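Milestone M4 deliverable, item 7.
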Amino acid sequence: MKTIFNLALIVSTVGLLLNCAQYNPHLTSTPGGSVWKFLPDYIPAPREFADNPVTPEKVELGRRLFYEKKLSGNGQMACAGCHIQKKAFADGLTVPAGTTGQLHPRNSMSLVNLAFVPVLTWGNPLMRRLHTQALVPIFGENPVELGLTGNENQFLEQMRSDADYLRLYKIAFPDHTDKVTMETTVLALEAFQRSLFSFNSAADKFEHGNTSALSESAKRGLNLFFSEKMECFHCHGGINFTSSIDTALHAEPEIDFSNNGLYNVDGNGAYPTGNTGIHEVTGRAADMGKFKAPTLRNIEVSAPYMHDGSIATLEAVVEHYARGGTLTPSGPKAGDGATNPFKSSFVAGFSATTQEKEDLVNYLKSLTDCDFLTNKNFSNPFPEGHANNNNSSLNQLEITHPCYENP
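Output delivered:
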């Protein structure tokens, strides 16, 4: 069959791909087999891709590959190293470190309801498909994340020589002549990530009839969240609590990037060098500091916040928006984000009592979905003690959320 990408070209030009790729989605509106059966009736099916329909077989292979450390150049890190289920597939760090220890400039995004997400990274409007995005952490060299460049043939031979993996590749890709390739690997990773659904939070239950699902404080917070006073819902609305959304019912994806007044380092709207959002791709001055509004689902467990992990708590996030932007008094990032000329008009600041701010935070916490954070279908499939399930830093996460009172 026709391949989706030329691996050698992709490996040598990952940066070019990020900046110059053309969007060619090959879309259909056919639901993805039995995988979508886990969606609530009130959630529309995701848009399907004709070149990679999601199947349970691909999802299971993708799950194993997501936790597979052989996918890194030194065999020490998997995708799950920066995307931990208990953290809503974020990692709890300001910025992550790759397999060589090199730091990434941006905070690890949570992986929630990706089947409905039309743009995948903080600041690249061209990154639309998960199988393409996967090539960046696998092969990217600035920064190095998984660092597989130069070792991809060794990885594929390891997959072919493993009877379990070979069986999974064969049943996941029966129509591919060569079953075990980097192409089928990233297609399986795409399928697994598109299966990560989260629609069973207390807020969801309240929205659909369980009036006791929210505390009185969270109910007040809900009203504040959707009020013109606080304006939260403009950038964090819809089924995924974000302004970028796509489903099988959409004629075209809704895509949005905005500047939320986090920085203003020169007084003229500049963001720190090397972290300027979609401006890095478009070059347009008006795009300075524009980043994707992330989903707020499971936001309680995915701290720290913002594209650079610079805000530690939900309470501090609320203070940022109440002020209308962050004031950085000194240092290389000094400036008043509230006066950033490129800031979204929705980040205008607001007055709120201490109780109102607490109510808003409690509503945000009601978006935590314990089922998602503990769902075995998303968890590490390898037995404890296996090379792919012995990362003490992951196994010893200190999380005191009620989801884990009885692990």
